[in-house]
Design a protein that fits this description.
The protein is mainly β. It contains five helices and 33 strands. It is 6% helix and 40% strand. The radius of gyration is 21 Å and the shape is globular. The N terminus is likely disordered.
Length: 489
C-alpha cells in the first residue's frame, strides 16, 4: 500500500533530504533550511531602516495566461529570488514568479480558475488556497507535494461566495519556513453581491499583508523554529513603511501573514477602523473597531476614511499586541498627500447571514484540544487531542452534508494557538462561554484560541468529499505536529 507518508518520503528523497518523524525538528530548527541562509546567533543583525523611510509596495495583480469560456488559466513558477527589503542588501526569498510580496489573483464566484505551479526549488512543495472550498486533489494537503522540476495544476471551482483568500505553501515540516521566506500570495474572490455595493474599488482597494521577520548579520531572513525575536514588522514586504493616500475612503484588506505573531491594530489618532469583512467575506453590518486583533492566517477588510484628515496628515497604524512597543509597535504610516473625489460609501447592511438560532441542527458535538510542550525543551512538540500529526491516520470522520459543533480548547497555560479548518467556512458561536462578538459574527476559517480558552464553532460539511486537515495556523506549531486529518464521506 502506498501511503501519504511514502509519497512525501519519495519527494524528500529526490531532494536529498530525510523524512522526519512528526515533531522531530531537532534543536528547534526546520530541516527545510538546509540550502537557505541561517541565523548568526551571536552576531549583530543587519540594520533595519528607520520607520516610515521606505514606501509600501502594492502587490502586482496577475493576468490570466488564457481566458476561455468559463475558465481563467494562470501559470506560476515557485522559485528563489532576491528582494531589496533592507537598504543596499539583496535578501534571498522564496517566491511565486519572483514576486515579494506575493502576487494577487482576482477570481469570480462561479468562474473556474486553474493555476499551474512549476516547482523551481530544490524542495517539494504543496500549494494551499486558504479558506477555499475545493476538492481534495486541489486543496494542497501537506503530504500531497510535487517535487523539484515538476508541476501541478490546481483547479479552483469558486463555488463559494466572495472572500479575501490567500494561497501559501503547505508541505509538512517545511510549511512554516517556506511561508516565512515568502511563499504566500493573495486570492480575491468576488461575486455579484459584493460588486453591487458602493465600497471603495480599484486603486482604493488595497491588499496589505503584515508579518514579522528577523534578519541575520548579512541581511538574510533568519529562520529558527518558534523564534521569539522576529521583531522587524513588514507591510507588503517592506519594513515599517509609509503609504501615500488620497483624502477619501480606502478598503484595506488586512492579512496576518506571520508564523506566530498576534497583532492588535489601531490608528494613532484613536479613530476606529470600520471592519466590513472577515475571513469568509462581508459581515452583515460594518463594525467600528477601536482595536483589531488578528492571529496568523486571519483576514479582516476595513474601511478608513482619510477625508477626515487634512492633506499633510500622517496617520500611523500601530500594534499593541505582544512584544516591546519600541520594536513592534509601529506597522505602517498613511500619508495623506492629495484630495480626490469619492463616490464610495459603506452601506448600513452589507449582506444577510442566518442567525445562530437558524443554523442547521448539529448532528455531532466534538471536542478538540490544542496543546504543545511549554517546558522549555529545545524541540517542542504540538498535539491535537494528545496526538502528533500522523498522515496515515484519519482522526475524524464526518458525514457529507451534516452540521457539527466543534468545541476547540487551548489547554496550554502560556502559549496562544489558533485553529484553521480546511474546506469549510464556519460560524463562531461562543468564545469563553459568551456569544461571539460582532467582528467574529461572519464566516470564518481561522480563529484565535488563547491559553485556557474554548471557542465553540458551527461547521457544515457540504462542499466536497475526501480527506482534509485541521491545524493550528501558527505554522511553527503545525510543523511541530499540531495537525490532524478529517474525512468527509
Amino acid at each position: 500500500m502506498i501511503t501519504r507518508r511514502r509519497v512525501l518520503g519519495g519527494a524528500l528523497a529526490a531532494a536529498g533530504l530525510p523524512l522526519l518523524a512528526p515533531g522531530s525538528l531537532a534543536g528547534g530548527e526546520a530541516h527545510a533550511a538546509g540550502a537557505l541562509p541561517q541565523a548568526g546567533p551571536h552576531r549583530a543583525p543587519a540594520p533595519v531602516p528607520p520607520a516610515f523611510s521606505t514606501a509600501m509596495p502594492v502587490p502586482p495583480v496577475l493576468r490570466p495566461l488564457t481566458s476561455t469560456g468559463n475558465v481563467d488559466f494562470y501559470e506560476l513558477t515557485i522559485r528563489k529570488a532576491t528582494a531589496r527589503i533592507l537598504p543596499g542588501i539583496a535578501t534571498e526569498v522564496l517566491t511565486y514568479d519572483g514576486h515579494f510580496p506575493g502576487p494577487v489573483i482576482h477570481a469570480r464566484s462561479g468562474r473556474r480558475v486553474l493555476v499551474r505551479h512549476r516547482n523551481g526549488l530544490d524542495m517539494p512543495v504543496s500549494v494551499h488556497l486558504h479558506g477555499a472550498s475545493v476538492p481534495p486533489s486541489s486543496d494542497g494537503n501537506p503530504m500531497d507535494v510535487f517535487g523539484p522540476g515538476t508541476s501541478r495544476t490546481y483547479v479552483y471551482t469558486n463555488r463559494q461566495p466572495h472572500a479575501s483568500l490567500w494561497f501559501h505553501d503547505h508541505s509538512h515540516h517545511m510549511e512554516a519556513e517556506h511561508v516565512y521566506r515568502g511563499l504566500s500570495g493573495t486570492y480575491l474572490l468576488t461575486d455579484a453581491l459584493e460588486q453591487r455595493l458602493p465600497l471603495p474599488k480599484g486603486r482604493y482597494d488595497v491588499p496589505i499583508t503584515i508579518r514579522d521577520a528577523r534578519f541575520d548579520e548579512h541581511g538574510q531572513l533568519a529562520y529558527t523554529m518558534a523564534d521569539r525575536n522576529r521583531t522587524t514588522i513588514l507591510a507588503n514586504g517592506a519594513p515599517t513603511p509609509s503609504f501615500e493616500v488620497a483624502a477619501r475612503k480606502y478598503r484595506l484588506r488586512l492579512l496576518n501573514g506571520s508564523n506566530l505573531r498576534l497583532f492588535a491594530l489601531n490608528l494613532s489618532d484613536g479613530t476606529p477602523l470600520i471592519q466590513i469583512a472577515s475571513d469568509g467575506g462581508l459581515l452583515e453590518r460594518p463594525v467600528a473597531v477601536p482595536v483589531l486583533t488578528l492571529s496568523p492566517g486571519e483576514r479582516a477588510d476595513v474601511v478608513v476614511d482619510f477625508s477626515r484628515h487634512p492633506v499633510g496628515t500622517r496617520l500611523v497604524l500601530t500594534n499593541s499586541g505582544p512584544g516591546r512597543p519600541e520594536q513592534v509597535g509601529k506597522v505602517l504610516r498613511f500619508d495623506v498627500v492629495r484630495t480626490a473625489d469619492d463616490p464610495s460609501r459603506v452601506p448600513e447592511v452589507l449582506r444577510t447571514l442566518p442567525p445562530a438560532s437558524a443554523l442547521p441542527a448539529a448532528a455531532v458535538t466534538r471536542h478538540i484540544e490544542l496543546s504543545m510542550d511549554e517546558d522549555g525543551r529545545p524541540d517542542p512538540r504540538g498535539f491535537i487531542n494528545g496526538q502528533l500529526y500522523d498522515p496515515d491516520r484519519v482522526d475524524t470522520t464526518v458525514a457529507f452534508g451534516s452540521s457539527e459543533i466543534w468545541n476547540v480548547t487551548n489547554t496550554n497555560k502560556r502559549v496562544a494557538h489558533n485553529f484553521h479548518l480546511h474546506l469549510v467556512q464556519f460560524r463562531v458561536l461562543e468564545r469563553g462561554g459568551r456569544p461571539a462578538g460582532p467582528t467574529e459574527a461572519g464566516l470564518k476559517d481561522t480563529v484565535r484560541v488563547m491559553p485556557g480558552e474554548t471557542v465553540r464553532l458551527h461547521v457544515t460539511f457540504d462542499g466536497f468529499r475526501g480527506e482534509y486537515v485541521y491545524h493550528c495556523h501558527m505554522l511553527d506549531h503545525s510543523a511541530m505536529g499540531m495537525m490532524a486529518t478529517f474525512r468527509v464521506r
